[in-house]
Amino acid sequence: MKLDILTPEKNLYSGEASLVQLPGVDGSFEILNHHAPIISALGTGVVKFKTPQGERKIKIAGGFVECLNNKVIVCAEGVVAE
Fold it and tell me: How far apart are the C-alpha atoms of 47 and 59, rounded to whole Å?
């Protein structure tokens, strides 16, 4: 699936991912290929995602995620570390 992780300042990642684990406001959840459409608020935590090059992690302080048609867009606020 296509994954974009964006902040107001820059694009942190744009490419393929097979799994995205996100810190939802009510707990962690995962998005896999062909996931049902979803829009959700994100809390403070770590976004983990698997790319063809390996697993990556980005710590965020909140934001939103949208998944539609096998494309995931994460709008992150307050990126603590990449």
Answer: 6
Q: Please tell me whether the overall predicted TM-score, pTM, comes out greater than 0.85 for this model.
A: yes
- The phi-psi region of residue 11 (left if phi > 0; otherwise alpha if psi is between -120 and 50; otherwise beta) is beta
Distance CA 76, CA 10 (A): 10
Structure confidence by residue, pLDDT tens digits, 16-63: 999 999 999 999 999 999 999 999 999 999 999 999 999 999 999 999
Could you tell me which CATH number the domain at 2-76 has? Answer: 2.60.15.10
Token pair, residue 35, equals: 């996931």
Work out the burial of residue 34: count CB atoms within 10 Å of its CB; fewer than 13 is exposed, 13-18 middle, 19 or more buried. exposed
Q: Can you tell me the distance from the alpha carbon of 78 to that of 59, in angstroms, rounded to the nearest whole number?
A: 9
Give domain limits for the chain: 2-76
